[in-house]
Amino acid sequence: MATFKAPKGTYDLIPPVSVKYLAVREAISAPLRNSGYGYIETPGFEDVGLFARGVGESTDIVSKEMYAFETKGGDQLALRPEGTASVLRAALEASLHKQGNLPVKLWYSGSYYRYERPQKGRYRHFSQVGAEAIGAEDPALDAELIILADQAYRSLGLRAFRILLNSLGDKECRPVYREALQGFLRGLDLDEETVRRAEINPLRVLDDKRPDVQKQLVGAPVLRDYLCDACKAYHEEVRALITAAGVAFEDDEKLVRGLDYYTRTTFEFVHDGLGSQSAVGGGGRYDGLSEMIGGPALPSVGWALGVDRTVLALEAEGIELDIPAPTAVFAVALGEEARRVLFGKVTELRKAGVAADFSFGGKGLKGAMKDANRSGARFAVVAGERDLAEGLVQLKDMESGEQSPVALTELVDAVRARLA
Ligand code: AMP
To answer: In which band, very low, low, confident or very high, does the pLDDT at 262 lie, cut at 50, 70 and 90?
Structure first.
């Protein structure tokens, strides 16, 4: 047994399951790549201050779950707990927003780290594919992102998900609501930490999952009643555009999400087959974030979809992705000379774009044919000294079991013709 194990709250992606993760990343990013979003990659760690200021000091993500550390050089860094702050930081640093091409539309895929209590669907290392549209206040942009996420999930065959939608207001109306909510919360019987949270970010108290808290929240002022006319009109336009696209959603006035930077449109994708960790993705508008991290005013909107939970959602719905076998041809060589010749043919096949593999390790016919089976290859190419002496190999169709001799010089063409 190995001495070391994957750290608590993490797991390894290994074949054959790992291919699902690749397929999910591909499926989520495809609609983005098709809609003007450019690929961006940022470091796995950033200045801790970026997240403290961007995501918010009072959030669980920053106050409890961040992997923050000091480097040998004395820098205060943190493993990234989410993608938005980093992407915006990178866009500002590269002055992408100054090139007169707003909105800047970017997509990313990567690993994120949160020191959470691990359970199914909640890990300390997880992966997301995300999208950010930076520098435009346009309800069509909010709608575009929601529609693209919906399209991504549908392309994977997922059906048992719902889209929850809310507006958190803006810097005009949210403070008024915030005060009204704070007044309400002060009259409740809450524990010390929640009282503190109510003073720093009262909206997040609405997100408290504990039943005794939820019971007391009945009758709390509702943000919808406080939205200013501009926010109301904006939200109605987002709703109308999504509806016109045929994307179903539910209005959820309690949806506030665990990050401080959201304004106006917020949304979450939840999957009904996942139990308590039901959020498969989420996002929203963050019009104030750029200024919070020292940039100019850049109203923006984005989302991140969790890859791990999307894979769990596929399993919950019993969806098998249509993933082609990784190997099309498997070569089985019997004897030294055959090994040399077939190894060369495998290289030739690969160069010709045919996924090919080879029986390594000097196995006998039986063991090598087992490898050929396990590889999922459509064809096995078998050759011994006698075949080669005649300039032939045996091409075996692994589905029908039929086998026929093919001239060595014709092998690549013959295989390509049969695979086409
Ligand atoms: P958030 O940034 O918290 O809105 O997360 C966006 C998405 O990332 C969630 O909907 C999940 O799918 C995924 N996610 C967030 N935290 C975790 C975690 N600890 N483990 C697995 N997936 C997560």
So the answer is: confident
